[in-house]
Write a structure and sequence with these properties.
alpha/beta, 14 helices, eight-stranded parallel β-sheet, two-stranded antiparallel sheet
Length: 393
Amino acid sequence: MASTREWFETVEEARRRAKRHLPKPVYMALVAGTEKGVTLQDNLTAFSELRFTPPRIADLPATRVLATSVLGQEIALPVIASPTGVQAVHPDGEAGVARGTAEAGTAMGLSSFGSMPVEAVAQVNPKLFFQSYWSGTRDQIIQRTERARQAGAKGLIVTLDWSFSNGRDWGSPAIPEKMDLRTLLRLAPEGILKLSYVREWLKHGGLPDLTVPNMGVPGEPAPTFFGVYGEWMQTPPPTWDDIAWLRGQWGGPFMVKGVMRPDDARRAVDIGATAISVSNHGGNNLDGTPASIRALPGVADAVGGQIEVLLDGGIRRGSDVVKALALGARAVMIGRAYLWGLAANGSAGVKNVFDVLRGGIDSTLLALGRSSIHELSPDDVIVPAEFGRGLHK
């Protein structure tokens, strides 16, 4: 169907609508990567280097099978929402993402740095995975994960692909610690340029307060984003023994996010993880590392089906999803794409993004002569000889 005011046909159109709607600092925080953005760009470029084998003529059923499962949850398509921090792009925030993903028939990850409490989000979409950084003491980490378990989280994601703070060559957007009068006056020029954004927030009771309730204690004031960011910065990175301990404490479905090396993938298998996500944090970790899709084949080969493998980074269309599945992923995770949808049209925009990807997956399967995502294999993709050089060891 053609685009309308309430519908967009592509993820790229969602991005353009988000750019028109959001104040520049908010939009830049969504699209930027670390330093020069080499890894950010490679996440996109690498998909363009992959080619499909020529379409085949086949006797196919009227509908293709897109459903699968991740961390024990049945999902209608092989795409889930990756956890992203404070979602100031729309007043509905994580609840809007939960509603959109639930309506799309899929799961979502909720960041521990999110702006809404896990209890509220889990009520909207029960297929919820709680994401935790290695931040603070072990007791604090367990307190957060147990809170998520009590709220109904079905799985735990521990994120290891955001390991240190570094700048952006184009300048990091200034993020205020709180929305006081001085901050509002400073941001007034941006607000005047994007009045629809300001009106949207005021209609819902006020501007974002940039607090992170899931890092605090229920019943007490939520800590600020900068407060918990500082705690994370001062916490030594975890070892594999630490991750194994957390895996044992959680006891349920468990994903290690940020695995880009075959040897780390094998370690994740050894500690009993349920899944790994091949991810470079959307180009927001160490700049100059390869695209996550380049690392995927080596990681998938290393674990040999012993563990669920997901791909996170650079997904913009359904054909990207199919390429990832053909190279060994069970499903993919998206971040920026659904945030653009949220900015463009709230929870309906989130569902719109998943529907766009669903349609693209289906049409790609049809062209490839595949009746199911589970039939995809490396034979469906032409991979350049130098595509993942140095990553398959």
